[in-house]
Amino acid sequence: MDYQTFKEKVGVLCGINLSYYKSQQMDRRINSLMQAWGITEYGEYLHVLETDHEKFREFVNKLTINVSEFFRNPERFIELWEKVIPEMLKKYSQIRIWSAGCSDGSEPYSISIIVSELRARDRVKIVATDIDREILAKAKEGIYGANDLRSLPVHLQEKYFEKNGSNFILKDEIKRMVEFRHHNLLHDPYETNVHLIVCRNVVIYFTEEAKNNIYTKFYQSLVPGGYLLVGGTEPILQYRQLGFEHALTSFYKKP
Ligand SMILES: C[S@@+](CC[C@H](N)C(=O)[O-])C[C@H]1O[C@@H](n2cnc3c(N)ncnc32)[C@H](O)[C@@H]1O
């Protein structure tokens, strides 16, 4: 089997369109695992992924480790923009937002853009954390490629980025709103008095026990009336036991 066919088939298997990944980085990840597992042929590689659940998990985990983009799943950002953040701004004079597992910054910066559009820059503080120091350094730079911005409406791309060759450089006024910090969700103390926690596509490969722990701590971090936004593929089934109410798709509210 050739590499292209492998990539197409494995994309279907994972439900991830691999063409959205920076290909050099992805090729390196795919081939380094292949080597580590002592596999020499792509047909065999595919067979292993189809039949060995643990290896399949490891593969997806490795591939998606830092994947992010501006307005990823745009409908959720529209809800943040039109409902959740305005509701918070009505209720509180200052609000604190935590993007946990923020990767390259696309997620917290998307929120900064929304806050800026809502003309509430001086009333919102955004903390963004990740376990990966390298990706945090990249996030602080605020330099992106066209692919990272493909879900962000064009007028916002033009308003908040400066183009330099193929790079899109985020303006300082948006960068300034986010404070990046190193944080391990599995070990470190959590933020407190948070009005909105956004934690998407981070816990997806954790065990149920670890996830429950994290969600319990998120609950404690939130103020009453605060929201937790999770990824589209990771609904919290036991939200009631944790004390949450289901508010909107992927949004949970602490009563
Ligand atoms: C797939 S990215 C998600 C980025 C963004 N939240 C989004 O949905 O677009 C997952 C991020 O979680 C981070 N991560 C993984 N394990 C973590 C942990 N234990 N504590 C904090 N961050 C973690 C990774 O470094 C990675 O940047």
Please describe what this structure looks like:
This protein is of the alpha/beta class. It folds into 2 domains: 3-63, no CATH class; 74-253, Rossmann fold. Helices cover 45% and strands 20% of the residues. It contains 11 helices and 10 strands. A 7-stranded mixed sheet has the order 6-2-1-7-8-10-9. A 3-stranded antiparallel sheet has the order 3-5-4. Strand 4 (161-164) and strand 5 form a beta hairpin. The longest helix is centred in the first third of the chain and has 18 residues, at 74-91. The chain is globular, with a radius of gyration of 19 Å. The mean pLDDT is 92. S-adenosylmethionine binds next to loops.
What's the structural blueprint in terms of helices and strands?
Layout: H1 3-14, H2 23-36, H3 42-51, H4 53-63, H5 74-91, E1 95-100, H6 106-117, E2 124-130, H7 133-141, E3 143-144, H8 154-160, E4 161-164, E5 167-170, H9 172-175, E6 178-182, E7 194-199, H10 208-221, E8 222-230, H11 239-242, E9 245-248, E10 251-253
Parallel strand pairs: 1-2, 1-7, 2-6, 7-8
Antiparallel strand pairs: 3-5, 4-5, 8-10, 9-10
Helix pairs in contact: 1-3, 3-4, 5-6
Bound molecules: S-adenosylmethionine.
